[in-house]
């Protein structure tokens, strides 16, 4: 697939795909004319990268993960550790956010009661 096709498919701007390539995050193949030739595997990788970004993983960590990915099976343990640490961080953030939401809901109920008593 050409860069324009994959850009439309994964809803990522062409400039972003080229930026990922420049940073070593994405390494598409080339066709006989030297044009980028993206595979289904590249599509899945881009979607995974987008999820990592959406969940707050830094590009530096994604680059590191990508380097390890290209090194093959010898780095599976390290990649698992990275993902586990990222997951744990997200779970902590989720718990903290839920605590803040619970507190805010308590305050909303308090002010609802106060507003009703003023009617």
TrEMBL record:
Top-rank lineage group of the source organism: Bacteria
Descriptive protein name: MerR family transcriptional regulator
Coiled-coil region list: 80-107
Keyword entries, A-Z: Coiled coil, DNA-binding, Repressor, Transcription, Transcription regulation
Keyword match Disulfide bond: no
The keyword DNA-binding appears for this protein: yes
CDD domains: HTH_YyaN
Family matches, as InterPro entries: DNA-bd_dom_put_sf, MerR-type_HTH_dom, MerR_fam
GO molecular function: DNA binding; DNA-binding transcription factor activity
Domain (HTH merR-type) ranges: 1-68
Annotated SUPFAM superfamilies: Putative DNA-binding domain
UniProt cross-references to PANTHER family, sorted A to Z: MERR-FAMILY TRANSCRIPTIONAL REGULATOR, REDOX-CYCLING DRUG-SENSING TRANSCRIPTIONAL ACTIVATOR SOXR
